[in-house]
Amino acid sequence: MIAQTVNKAVKYYLSKRYRRIEQHYQGGIDLQEHQFSALIKALSRTQYGNQYGVRETISYRDFQDRVPPVQYEDIRPYIDRMMHGEADVLWPGVINWFAKSSGTTGGPSKFVPISKQNLYHCHIAAAWDIMSIAYHYRPDSQMFAEKTMVMGGSLQRFLPHHKTIVGDISAIWLHHMPKIGRPFYTPDFETALLSDMEQKLDRMLHICTKENIVMFGGVPTWLSVFFNQVLDFTGKRNILEVWPNARLFVHGGVGFEPYREQFRAFLPSDDFGYLEAYNASEGYFAIQDHFSSDGMLLLLDNDIFYEFVPLDDQYQLQQENIIPLAEVNTHTTYAIVISSSSGLWRYMPGDTIQFSSIDPYRIKIVGRTKHFINAFGEEVMVANTDQAIANTCQSHTANVSDYTVAPIYFQGGKKGGHEWLIEFEKEPEDIELFCDTLDLQLQKINSDYEAKRQNDLALKRLTIKTLPKGTFRKWMAHKGQLSVQNKIPRLSNNREYVENILAYVAS
């Protein structure tokens, strides 16, 4: 009775909050201008702003001229000073929370500052926004009467300065979750914040299977692993036999297309809904504003000011041509640039996007600035391979758990090509036929790849090496990078990841 009363009250609050979403349909540019003015006032009170002569009244054009676009390595020294307790470096005051992120499992960790303002006005605000969308289109939702399952990361103290805490953004979000939401989440927070993923999954099995879960949130890769363990543990045929009232999955972190068929098998109901979220350590950037919308609504009032860098034909950044939101179009691939209330100024997180519409502004993630294959002029991006593998799995009633792709270079007069390492949840009956279909699907989606493949002129047909179940997870654990934030690199323009994985499998 009390839970239903809370759910009714939250539902009323969210119906009012939904107006924030509706504002995006009417005045997106106005929202961004307001964000710019508020952020510049904060920048003017920092050492970084003083270094570049930023004043409260600076115009956008002056901001462009004075403040350079940066990547993580450019601002790492500033962040290191902040982690040691120095105030007013990139953001006014002292920041004690830093989101640890390596994006994919390749490079060294990044530590993204998370100010209290950014946490509440960006990350937590966007979580409320996505709830308002869910309740708007599903008024009978019960997220604040029953349980939502989340898979969080972990937290730890930064030893050189004990007041500084680092961890996955999901763990920071959970730690600061508003009290009203805590009773409606599972597992308990101690379990959710465990650093040992194997121990966490085992404890979640015993806790979550006893709950009435109505919504799931997390990265498809990890939820897929957990769902399989749940089915083994309970002996059920699908997840809806375990949690019959489950109605929604909010997913992000990796492209969902390769997992779509697998989740249809897990959750065989036409009434089950999926909403995509673009929630990075650097900010909660976009959310799918309708179950059937094409792309995600770019959040324009969440303490982030956006700019965009067009990419040339070689996927190189054209930094001299950075543009504001008002100048984007729907036919260009852009690298996203953000200025935020965590002190990231003209910062490039590394994601590439395209606009599916500009009224309102909706985006699709198409890849990473460093994760693509263009070894032979084929210009293949993650969005291409995600779609190709999804289409192929559908044709062959197969399911893929994870994959990575790298080029096979020209050697000894032999043609080059692409090598796919794939971990199947359900293998196709004929792997060679699957390989043929995947190659044709990629040609269909990417005309540059098709041109290079014509008559095997420049590229031979792609090859597939199947990996035993659990290989990617074990490889990540071997590298000490087994967490919900770390992801397998889908594409690489060199063979570093593939050779590393193959060497691990051989050992």
What coarse outline follows from CA principal-axis ratios? globular
Q: Major sheet, described briefly?
A: 12 strands, mixed
Radius of gyration: 23 Å
- Helix % is 25-40%
Approximate strand percentage = 15-25%
Count every helix, treating DSSP H or I runs of 4 or more residues as helices. Answer: 18
The computed structural class is alpha/beta
Distance between the termini: 57 Å
Query: What does the average pLDDT come to?
Result: 90
Q: How many strands in all?
A: 21
* Strand arrangement across the biggest beta sheet: 6-3-7-8-9-10-11-16-15-14-12-13
Give the low-confidence spans. none
Notable features of this structure?
alpha/beta, about 20% strand, 4-stranded mixed beta sheet, about 500 residues, 21 strands, GMP Synthetase, Chain A, domain 3, 18 helices
Would you write up a description of this structure?
Among the domains are: 2-22 and 117-287, no CATH class; 372-506, GMP Synthetase, Chain A, domain 3. 37% of the residues lie in helices and 21% in strands. The protein is α/β, with parallel strands linked by helices. It is built from 18 helices and 21 strands. It has helices at residues 2-17, 19-23, 28-43, 47-51, 60-66, 72-83, 116-137, 169-175, 189-192, 197-208, 220-234, 239-242, 260-266, 382-396, 431-445, 447-453, 471-478, 496-506; strands at 97-101, 110-113, 147-150, 155-157, 165-167, 185-186, 213-218, 248-251, 273-280, 283-287, 296-298, 304-310, 323-324, 334-340, 351-358, 361-368, 372-373, 380-381, 399-408, 417-426, 463-467. Helix 1 packs across helix 7 (116-137), helix 14 packs across helix 15 (431-445) and helix 15 crosses helix 16 (447-453). Strands 6-3-7-8-9-10-11-16-15-14-12-13 form a twelve-stranded mixed beta sheet, with helices on both faces. The protein has a four-stranded mixed beta sheet with strand order 2-1-5-4. A three-stranded mixed beta sheet has the order 19-20-21, sandwiched between helices. The model has no long low-confidence stretch (mean pLDDT 90). The radius of gyration is 23 Å and the shape is globular.
